[in-house]
Amino acid sequence: MRVSYAPAYYAPLPEGHVFPMKKFTGLHRYLTGQQLIYPENVVAPSPVDVASLLTVHTREYVHGIMEGTLNRKQQRRLGLPWSRRLALRSRLAVQGTINAGLMALEDGIAGNLAGGTHHAMPGFGEGFCVFNDVAVAIKVLQQSMWAKRILVLDCDVHQGNGTAKVFENNQDVFTFSMHGEKNYPFKKPPSSLDIGLPDKTGDKVYLRTLGDALDDIFSQFDPDLVFYLGGIDPLEDDHFGRLSLSMKGLQNRDEVVIRTVVEKGIPLVLLLSGGYAPTVKETVLAHAEMYKKALAWAS
């Protein structure tokens, strides 16, 4: 299985910042060190071009990120302090998702060892999301005629508000978000299908709800390509999660999604999205579970 990754996915943050930036290099090191992903199958992206970013984002916002002209309010909303390395990593990660989409269309399954930055809106970033890589990748793949009907399966604990907003009323993109109802963001633009879950939902109800939702989605929408945002923040010990999934429950979630898509013969893109376990090591190991499940189905 091929994946997108570049060392510059890491950009330094102030000491004590809550965002686990080191998880990107840590996940790459773990997957290659365990020989789950072979080095020759790691494809390094170049920075995404401005024209691609402008399919989703405003020129003013793109310029603000690339040139560092965001004001304090904009940086506070983003949740990340601007730096040239942050701007570079954000452009690399977007192209990584575009590349993963193309690789999935060729291979059946591919991934980006980053991505899933679903909170970014056309004119601003928020919730640690600079650019909306999923939305840009979809726009680029559609404009290039690589795919037309695209499904976003977003299982991050936070609703994919940016993606929902970009594709509202777009009949060729189905956005599904299953998230914590009382969790961030507090204003949730409607996805094609939203399922808001109560705090402490737990494995049994979560998995039953997900299975029913997937049956419903595929009964009404036949995609050419699926993007899966496999955020690990529904875990019970996540700093922001509150849905109380066990590790076994998270593994079963990934199994259900990946098996459902692969058995239907639909190309699948894997994206990390959020995860804030107590340590970077725990965060990395939890993200790796999605790739372990995918590798079992990619052979």
Automatic annotation (TrEMBL):
Molecular function terms, GO-annotated: histone deacetylase activity; hydrolase activity
Keywords: Hydrolase
Keyword hit for Transferase: no
Family that this chain belongs to: Belongs to the histone deacetylase family.
Organism lineage string: Bacteria, Pseudomonadati, Balneolota, Balneolia, Balneolales
Source species: Fodinibius sediminis
Protein name: Acetoin utilization deacetylase AcuC
Domain Histone deacetylase: 17-283
Family annotation (InterPro entries): HDAC_classIV, HDACs, His_deacetylse_dom, His_deacetylse_dom_sf, Ureohydrolase_dom_sf
